[in-house]
Every structure is written in structure tokens, then in C-alpha cells.
């Protein structure tokens, strides 16, 4: 069974309306509005969803984030999994870090 999407490298920020992702000395803090937008546009892996459209939309959303000391690729890799639900999330978790190698 898949782990919850908000897994081991993520924790609630001091304020209940934000989420902090802490990894490699980079603290990415996402506000509730951004998180709700990710949830509203979550990809579940069903037959009627367009994966290419989802990826484009999710990456466009991540491009709106700026974190000092983090490049856009690091942000994409940390935030994108939050946009996956159900079967898509289970797939992401099951293959671990081997999915994206470049």
C-alpha cells in the first residue's frame, strides 16, 4: 500500500495554513492557496485524464515558486509528487527515485 502523499521529508509549518518541504538544506514553504490549487488539479491516473496536460499544468504552477538557493528542477522534483493522487501516487511511490534520471 502506498504511503501518504505528504511523506517523510515533509512536515507542517508553524502555521497551519502552510506546508514546508525540507530537503538538502532547502526549505520550500507552500501556502494553503497553492496547495489547494494542486489538490484541485490532482492527477489520479484514470483513463479519462490527460497525463501530458497534467504535467504541463503542474510544472507551470511550480514555475510560479521562487526559493532562494533552489533551482527550478529541485522545486519541480519536490512539489510535483504532491499533484498525484490514488493510482498515480502509488505508482510514483512504488518506483522510488528511479523514475527521473536526467
From TrEMBL:
Protein name (database record): Uncharacterized protein
Species name: Tanacetum coccineum
Organism placement in taxonomy: Eukaryota, Viridiplantae, Streptophyta, Embryophyta, Tracheophyta
Amino acid at each position: 500500500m502506498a504511503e501518504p502523499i505528504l511523506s517523510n521529508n515533509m512536515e507542517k509549518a508553524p502555521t497551519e495554513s502552510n506546508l514546508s518541504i525540507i530537503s538538502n538544506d532547502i526549505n520550500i514553504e507552500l501556502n494553503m492557496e497553492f496547495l489547494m490549487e494542486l489538490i484541485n488539479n490532482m492527477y489520479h491516473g484514470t483513463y479519462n485524464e490527460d497525463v501530458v496536460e497534467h504535467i504541463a499544468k503542474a510544472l507551470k504552477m511550480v514555475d510560479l515558486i521562487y526559493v532562494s538557493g533552489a533551482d527550478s528542477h529541485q522545486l519541480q522534483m519536490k512539489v510535483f509528487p504532491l499533484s498525484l493522487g490514488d493510482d498515480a501516487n502509488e505508482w510514483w511511490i512504488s518506483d522510488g527515485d528511479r523514475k527521473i534520471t536526467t
